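Handout for the seminar on molecular recognition.
Each group receives one record of this type.
Step one: identify the two inputs.
Step two: read the structure output and locate the region that could contact 4-nitrophenyl phosphate.
Step three: write two sentences on what you found, then compare them with the reference statements printed after the record.
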Amino acid sequence: MKPVAICFVCLGNICRSPTAEAVMRAQVEAAGLTEWITVDSAGTGDWHVGEAPDHRAQTAASRRGFDLSGLRARQIAAPDFERFDLVLAMDAANLAHLRQLCPPALRSRVRLLMEFGSQPAVNEVADPYFGGGEGFELVLDQCEDACRGLLARLRPGLAGETA
Ligand code: 4NP
C-alpha cells in the first residue's frame, strides 16, 4: 500500500490549517500510523509566509496538548497538487481558489476538510482571524472531529489495517 500525504489549506496558514495539521499529526501518532500518513499545511494567500501560527491559535491549541510553535506559514504552490494525495480546504473560498490553481486531472484531490466531519450540515471551518477567542475553540472542535472522520476513512486502505 502507498502512504497517504495530506495538505490542509486555509487563507493565511496561521490559524485553521496549522491547527488541522497539528491535530491530524497527533491523531496519526496516537494511532501508530506515522509511516503511512504524512501531514502538512499551506495558505492560499502569501501575507503571512514565514510566520509562526497566530498566538491565539497557539494558545488555544496548547491548552488541548497540541504544539503549533514550530510551524511556519507557506503559500500553496503548483507542485503541492502532485505531492499530496489530498488537499483539504477549510472553507468554500479556499476550495474555489485551490480548484483554479490545480491541474484539472488532479482536481479530485482537492476537497473540503469538513466532508469528513460528523455533522453533514457543516461544510466549513469558520475563519477565526477577526473574531474572539471562542472562534479558535470552534476551529479546534471542528478539526478534532473532522480529522477523526478522515482517519477512520483512510485506515481501511492502509497496510496492516482492517476495515
Ligand atoms: P487562516 O486565518 O486562514 O485560518 O490562517 C486568517 C489569517 C490571516 C488573515 C485571514 C484569515 N488575514 O486576513 O491576514
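Reference statements: Residues 133-154 form the longest helix (22 residues). The CA atoms of residues 143 and 152 lie 14 Å apart.
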